[in-house]
Amino acid sequence: MKVIPSVVALLSLATLSTSVLANTPDFPHLVTTGYGEVVAKPDMAQFTTRVVETTMTAEQSKQAVDKVVSDFLTALKAQGVEGESITSSNLYISPQYHYPKNGKPELVGYRASRTINVTVNDLDKLNQYLDTALNAGINQVDNIQLQVKDPGKYQDQARMAAIKDANNKADFLAEGFDKEIKGVWRIDYNMPSSQPVLMRAMAMDAKTESNTYQDSTIVIRDRVDVIYQLD
């Protein structure tokens, strides 16, 4: 019984070695990694707001939250925000307790909360919508994400820049070693994930973040690994 794990381990190592060797060309070759990036200016945003109310009864906290959310959604729609640009979570209610040093926990009220996500297709109106949230009674903004409407266009540009970078490196290295590139033998590519610009979470005061996003940029990166065959 003790011999079986050793045999399995040897078989695994043999399989791994065969796989590695199979992926290594047996002819003169050159390996390069190309990097590309594009700097884009955000033209849209998404922000998440949350209203939290604590009252003596569950019904009171629910009514308080429902009123704020209703006022906020009504104001957004009046300003031209489409329904598909707004999503909201279900109402969450939890009892709040006071824990004295000696004695049983005491119920002191109920906290209700609800989250609303808003997509801003016109970045110039971001502050306006944040002010609308403030006026409606929203008391927290969890985050603001600055984005671009057509990320694929910028990703294509970054990918092309990565390809050119890989080719330029290969040409330079081959020339430096008095070699010629015969062709491309293998290309490895994994689609990178694009990260939006995240503004810090904040208490609900839109003016504290008034124009900090206006000069922000999004860097979209790409990468490609290439193996070239040499003469």
What's the topology here?
Layout: H1 3-22, E1 29-40, E2 44-55, H2 58-78, E3 86-88, E4 92-98, E5 106-120, H3 126-136, E6 140-147, H4 151-176, E7 181-188, E8 197-199, E9 202-203, E10 218-230
Antiparallel strand pairs: 1-10, 2-5, 2-6, 3-5, 4-5, 6-8, 6-9, 7-10
Helix pairs in contact: 2-3
Describe what this molecule looks like in 3D.
The protein has 231 residues and is α+β, with helices and mostly antiparallel strands. It has two domains: 25-42 and 148-231, 2-Layer Sandwich (Translation Initiation Factor IF3); 44-147, Alpha-Beta Plaits. The protein contains four helices and ten strands; from the N terminus they run αββαβββαβαββββ. Strands 2, 3, 4, 5, 6, 8 and 9 form a seven-stranded antiparallel beta sheet that branches. Strands 1-10-7 form a three-stranded antiparallel beta sheet. A hairpin with a 7-residue loop joins β4 and β5. α2 (58-78) packs antiparallel against α3 (126-136). The longest helix is centred in the C-terminal third of the chain and has 26 residues, at 151-176. The radius of gyration is 28 Å and the shape is elongated. The two termini are 53 Å apart. Residues 1-21 and 200-210 have low confidence and may be disordered. InterPro entries: 26kDa_periplasmic_antigen, SIMPL/DUF541. This is Oxidative stress defense protein.
